[in-house]
Amino acid sequence: MKALAQRAVRIPELGVGIVLVVAMLVIGSVNPAFWDAANLFSLLRANVITGILALGVLMVMLSGGIDVSFPAFAIASMYLTIKGMVTLGYDGVALPFIAATLIGLLLGLVNAFFVHALRMIPLIVTLGTGTAVRGLLLGAVGASQINIDRMPPHLIAFARTDLLQVTSGGQHFGLSAMILVYAVIAVGVHLLLRHTLLGRSIYALGGGEEAARRIGFSVRNTRMLIYGLAGALAGFTGLLHGSMIWIANPHDMVGMELDVIAAVVLGGASIFGGRGSVLGTVLGVFTLVMVTNSLIIMHIDTTWQRVVVGLIVIAATAASSWRDRKRLG
Asked: Per the confidence metrics, is the pTM higher than 0.85?
């Protein structure tokens, strides 16, 4: 038992995995409906949006930065793209996702410019750009919701694709193919971080800007790529979100940054940069989504759900600091 605890300290992913298994057993014993196929498929589907956004936030945090603008970027990319599709009468899948991704990319590069060129604090920059983008969207483009009757049918059909279907109690349940999209992106980010020069530069930057520069990495290029990729993922995810819920709502995703950052920190990423992994983030997302969804199943009030998320952030940050002290000690 002591050896397992020591390994959990050295390997954050193992610690998160243990917490996840224990939480599943506890929740399943309290509420057996947790193990129903419908709930498990719904749980996996709920991981997609939070998970892809978390991968972008992970890259930023690994570099020693922070990003709270991604919900605004995601919604702006989604709403502008769908609004354009409705106006032009265009009904496709590939081009809209490319457009939304490019919008997010450009917005992410704006963050990178302010953070690097003007030497501004990432939290202040992303808080400002997120607020400005959401304000411009509502003020200049419009605040009206695009409902399912006006949504492009091909987008909805794409998001409704299932990998497999099962029948339980006379009802049919499908496992969303968007899980596969999430998995492909997660593998791509993992390969980028662990097997490319860019990945090494991200970790090096998180260890210290001057140290990264002395090693030979371009801090400017690294920051541009990090915030650009995070913005691109936000743009892509925004349109995916709209197609999965069949609505384009410019007021959506308010406050989602806390959930995503909580999942990344829960997955073992350090808020000071230089430490974290895709596997840990995926496990952190699954744990957080599982807990919040279980609270919904047990009819816990939304207010208390936010309390739980806040406590998870505090506990995960405390665990991260404790691991750092153990390693240094």
From this structure: yes
In a domain, 172, yes or no: yes
Cβ of 54: how many Cβ atoms within 10 Å? Answer: 31
**How far, in Å, CA of 329 to CA of 322, rounded?**
10
**CA separation for the pair 81, 26 (Å, rounded):** 42
Give me 212's structure tokens.
Answer: 């990264």
Residue 304 lies in a domain: yes
In whole angstroms, give the CA distance from residue 104 to residue 236: 7
Asked, for residue 4, whether it belongs to a domain, the answer is no
Q: Which domain does 48 fall in, by range?
A: 9-328
- CATH number for 316: 1.10.3470
**Rounded-to-integer distance, Cα 135 and Cα 326, Å:** 44
Rounded to whole angstroms, how far apart are CA atoms 60 and 54?
A: 10
Per the structure, how many domains does the chain have?
A: 1
| pLDDT tens over the chain, length 329 residues | 555 445 555 677 787 888 788 888 888 888 787 888 888 888 999 999 999 999 999 999 999 999 999 999 999 999 999 999 999 999 999 999 999 999 999 999 999 999 998 889 999 999 999 999 999 999 888 888 999 999 999 999 999 999 887 776 667 778 899 999 999 999 999 999 999 999 999 999 998 888 889 889 999 999 999 999 999 999 999 999 999 999 999 999 998 998 899 899 988 888 888 889 999 999 999 999 888 887 777 777 777 777 877 787 787 777 777 766 665 55
Q: Is residue 3 part of a domain?
A: no
Helix locations, the chain, DSSP H: 2-10, 12-30, 37-62, 70-88, 94-112, 122-136, 153-159, 178-195, 197-207, 209-215, 219-245, 256-266, 278-297, 302-328
